[in-house]
Amino acid sequence: MAETLDQKLGALAQISQRKLTDILDRIAGTKDFIIHPDLIKPLERIMGVSILRSHGVDKIYKLEKSAPTPCTSNQRVFFIPSDMITLKYVCDKITSEISSSGSERSYHIVFVSGILGCLIQLLEEEGIYGKVRVYPFHWELIRLDSRLLSIEYPTFFKNVFLEGDHSYLSCIARSIWSLQMLLGKPRTTFIQGKLSHLVHEMVNMLSDTVQKPEREDCDIACFIIVDRSVDYVTPLLTSATYTGLLDEVFGIRSGTVEIKGETINLSSADEVYSEVNTRHFSDVYSFLGAKTKELNEELNAFKRSHNMALQEMKAFINQQLQSLMGLKKSLSTHITACEAIIDKMADLFEALITTEHNIIQCQAKRENVTYIEETMAMESADKFRTLRLMGLLSLAQGGLLSEEVADLKSQFLHAHGYENLPCFLNLEKLGILTTQAGLLPHDLKGVALANRVVQAVMLAQKLHLLPETSMDPHGLRNPKDMSYVFSGAYIPIICQLVNFIIKLDTPLEEMAKLIPNCSVFLDSNSGRKPLRSFLVYFLGGVTFAEVAAFRLLEKLTGSRIVIAGTTITNGNQIVKACL
Amino acid sequence: MESKTELLNEAVSLGDGNAILTVVLFLAKSLKKTLFYQLLRSHTEAVNHYVNYLGTRMQLQEMTDILQVKLSKIILQMKQFSIACQSPQKRLQKLKTCLRNHFAESKDKIFVDNFIKLLEWQQSIGTAELEGKSVIDSLAYTCEHHWNDNKSSATSPYMLAQHHRINRRQFQWVALNALAKNSSWNEIETLLVTKGWLGGKRVNAILPMDQVVIQLHKLKAPNNVLHIYFELIDDIDKRMCVAKKLQCHKEVIDVSV
């Protein structure tokens, strides 16, 4: 019997589990499991502690840089990301443990994004290569919600886009290859961006050399891989959906968010959350209020119904009451979250949104600059917000004048410290905050950079990313247009691309020409059938705004869109990578 | 040597960073420097990966050599600058070296220069309160403790503002907050308001007056002080908005008259 897409995506976690338990089983007996803090939440998504326990894990410790890790077993397993700095800490720990208590313990290191040559060399230099055993472990894409996947490498953007370290590309290629083994090879593939092209080639190489997907058909008609750099406007803008704002204000990590000490699981299995998830924020509070009222009436009706027969009452208590109470709990959780967002954003929101809209529509430049300056002078917003606005302004204007950049930079450094100077170079490197063409130093390849920025402006026009009429409150409540995720100001580029592909007004080859550095690969027998199922993979991270826009597109067109990324990101993450 | 070149070509064309770096590290060990650099020079991608690696390992000398052979000064500048910033004890000294060696012709020279001046100035003030603080924090300190110092004295806020070319808006806001802390309401008035010909008051401030009123209210300014600035809000809607926010009845009446 054929499995559904849903079941197949569910199998990803089982594959990851199996890979890890196989490693644990190779280390016979009980062992200490020392995990890097950043890996805890993603690992929780894959497997529970009980599975670790059933494979010999006795005690679990958080890896801490300075404090020594307690030792309860002679077998120590370190579970860490594949980076040199973390490994150095682990080496120091192992060396000091060996010198203080002899070498009767055995050491094992599991590298979560595979074993890299430089890591082995570091082990050698530290003189412990012979004393440890190393294991590569690649977890599969982690399912954060029914059609939302992430490989959960939050440092990918910084490592790859900013520092140009391509060591992690092969992990991504591997995750995509696994996915294709599971779902079949798609007939139509769109690839956008330099990194995506590299990854695409690696995926093909894996299929050619290791194994090809056996199945002829595929659950996904069209596969799209894009570089985050194709659209920085989307993360820099403030998302106006419920989940988008939760992420902006509190930071969602692996599908959970912590508000006032309480951890909330964000999953569409939660009836209330699935209702408000992608809703425009202006509509969420009233919705939750109305729902609560409805629920209270239902409960009151029960309390009043004295004449309910004993049997009936029993049945009610058993079947309904529990779910009603669960609903009540969930409602109050989200109301608290809502209030917390309002509390943090209320003073800022209106002026911020107005400014963002003016910026991307290239209106009222002087007021926009004043607003940005006020965020620095009067500390009315944090430094991430300030940098995001500067970036937006530059993207919309195709770069700023060199005096403008100098002014903003100087105010920023005065307010937040001169040590932030490299941040501006990084933003320039990414093409987010640039000086207008001609004035750039040659070694940054000024012309190419400037071209890219001008392209971004042209792109917005070609793809109709800026809706002409503004949206009224009704439009935000019952959106018919993906721009609702930014209160009617802008449509994320890739969401619009998928929209165009679904409509199929233009041939796919022509469509690819609309977007810079984009190629389309068509299977010979892909024909001209309408495409209805998609998988969109964002290298460098996908935003909740894009997720919400895709969900609306699904609803409007009856299509199915699986979204994947190296992480879920937002504007704060992007600028933090530069700091 | 030919097979080594080929090896590097192959790794770069593969695009896998791990392969590239592994090959580069192997070449670094097995070739003499001149040959190694010569080979690297033809592969920007390989240089990138090697430089990242050296940066992480803090092997700065080697990194400096490579970057001077190839690639941009800017990246080297910024790397050196961040490294200088990372060590709190020797920061000043390292920044000076960094300025001398790497920022001589840079448009960012002024910022490094000012950073050094700021650190020296903070040392001369000699209070632990200012350690690691920004220009604006330092300015707040001088406004609070040295507002009435001679304007040409090193401790005067005006002097600090001049040295760092602090933007007027930033200056006024910081001063406003610091002075309010000391309840120096008259000084605030001198700062923000000028008297017109016939005794009328004019705004001399770049700050939005509605925000000024809200902030002063927060800082517990007395009503007669609030009133001065309230009257200077030129937009009626904004006045109403502020009045509502602060629930000042008198001011509301003023608007409706």
TrEMBL record, chain A:
Gene3D superfamilies: 1.25.40.850, 3.40.50.1910, 3.40.50.2060. Transmembrane segments: none annotated. InterPro entries: Sec-1-like_dom1 (IPR043154), Sec1-like (IPR001619), Sec1-like_dom2 (IPR027482), Sec1-like_sf (IPR036045), VPS33_dom3b (IPR043155). SUPFAM superfamilies: Sec1/munc18-like (SM) proteins. Belongs to the STXBP/unc-18/SEC1 family. This is Vacuolar protein sorting-associated protein 33B.
Automatic annotation (TrEMBL), chain B:
Keywords: Cytoplasmic vesicle, Endosome. Residues 1-191 form the Vps16 C-terminal domain. Its main location: cytoplasm. It is found in: Cytoplasmic vesicle; Early endosome; Late endosome. It comes from the Eukaryota. InterPro entries: Spe-39 (IPR040057), Vps16_C (IPR006925). Transmembrane segments: none annotated. GO terms for cellular component: early endosome; late endosome. This is Vps16 C-terminal domain-containing protein. It comes from Ranatra chinensis.
